[in-house]
Amino acid sequence: MNMQNLMAQANKIKRDVEKKQNEIDNMTFEGNSQFVNITMSGKREVKNLKINKNILNDNEDLEILEDMIVIAFNDALFKIDKKTEEELGAYTGGLNGLF
Hints:
alpha+beta; 3 strands; 99 residues; 17% strand
C-alpha cells in the first residue's frame, strides 16, 4: 500500500467520524426517572427539564428548582469535559491530525 492510498483512507475515516459526530450532535436524548425528565442534545447540553409537580407544593418553587438543576447539570458536564481534557489531552493531542 502506498502513502497516497494510506492518506486517502485516513481522510475517509476522518470524514466518516466527523459525519457521525455531527449526526449525534443534532440528535435529542431524553433521560427519565420517576419524578424528572431531562432532554439533552447530542452535544450534552440540557435543553429542557421537567419535574413531576406532585413532589412540590408551589409552582414558583418548581420553576426555580428546574432552572437551578439545569445550571448545575451543565456545570457538571463542563467539569467532566475539563477533567477529561486534563487527563486525556496529552494522549489524544497527537491524534488531532489524523481525525
